[in-house]
Amino acid sequence: MRAMMPRKGQQGGAVIEAVVATPFLLLLMLVAAEVTNAFVDHNTLTKAVRSGARHLSANAALGTTGTVVLTPELIAEAQSLVVYGNPTPGGSPRLPGLTVGDIQVIDLGGNVIQLTASYAYTGILGATLPGFGFGSDGDLTHNLEATVSMRAL
Hints:
- The protein is an alpha+beta fold.
- It has 2 helices and 7 strands, in the order αββαβββββ.
């Protein structure tokens, strides 16, 4: 019976350990969620850019001449495909805050087309992390970028 009783001076030790460990564990969970969310958003952006580049490469070559023609309509279709998931503008963007202005189309020459998207990623907590009196606020906005180059068919 004596072995089950806590010794004097050890009472409350588990509470102290929990108070010390909980903030670190919560911070670790928050960082893991933030990194996962950023990875998912970057993956979504990369897939969307790849889809837009595929649309451009399939439709930019003019007949059998091998000449690449990037018309404003074709560029607008590719930009809408990246942002909205379809070639016509409308609906909600795949990523919050992503616009057609964030998508650039470049003819690299040699029948190669490059499509680049820049996205200002804001984390789960928002754009800034307050300093709580320990310093200045931290900026949580990161620029995610995806670039795909494809040869026009």
